Amino acid sequence: MAQLIKLQDYISRYQIDMNRYPAQFIRMKKSGWERVKKEWESGNLVQNWEHIDEKNEIEEVEEKKRFSLKKLFKRNQNTNIEEVFETPVENRKEDSEDRLPDDDTTFYFKPNIIYNPQTLDELKKIFIDQFFHFQMKWASSTVREKSFVDSRFLRDSFLRTILQTLPDNYLVLYYPVIRLKNAPIELDIIILTPLECLCITMVEGEDFAVFIGNSEREHFWVKKVGKQDKKILNPIIQLNRMESIISKVFTQNKVEMPIRKILLSRNGYFDYPGTIYNLQFVDKREYPKWIQETRHSTSPMKHMQIQAAKALLSSVQTTSYNRIL
Length: 325
Fold this sequence. Notes:
The protein is an alpha/beta fold.
């Protein structure tokens, strides 16, 4: 399971200690799975079953957001956002007396099993579905702070797919908000593998839509659905901008990692003449093969990969509130 180190502008545990949490994630997932598997094989898992209703969980998230919105707004009125994020997270100092211990959710994961799985594959599916929610918690809270999670991310099928399909040593930033000259800019999807940085821009609309482009530099493309044509912004422009911003962040932080661009559509097709250097088109025809090839990684996590993650996390914008009141 890939690690979600940044989700939009939410506070993330990885921002606190990028050296610690990737390894902790892998150990926790492994130990959690071994524990659940052992309980299931011994027949003791049933005693701990508890049903989780994802619809109710989403409604609870929305209710908490509404309840705390006034408090958050009032707090932000007295806070200079630029000052809060002027210093990169890893460089901030903290008095030992003011340091809070980790809560129990940092080091322990216990899934709530929905039903009695009959096979090991069923148990594994339940486990990774439960772990997805745990990842969302890590990507939106620390011991001190918490961010409001938009419920659409709980229903985001591509986010769930890459987190549950790609290996543990892949680090994902999902639509992070980067500060560039004190201006927030939302990027698309960034995946840091041990060997390269993948920049992904999603282009999706109606099923079987065809996205037609003639030039990398033209401002508009055409989306064709049946006999209907509609102009859309050229998605390569956004993809190139994302590459440029990441490249600048890497250069400033002395990170040497190749960047590869991917234009992705799971339910549509690209009609583009020729090829573009360092850009891969992945549409409905290529998507299954691409996800299979991407998930296979034999390389362990690299030092430069961690440095790249630190560089990006030091440049992000974060919106959160203090959970210790």
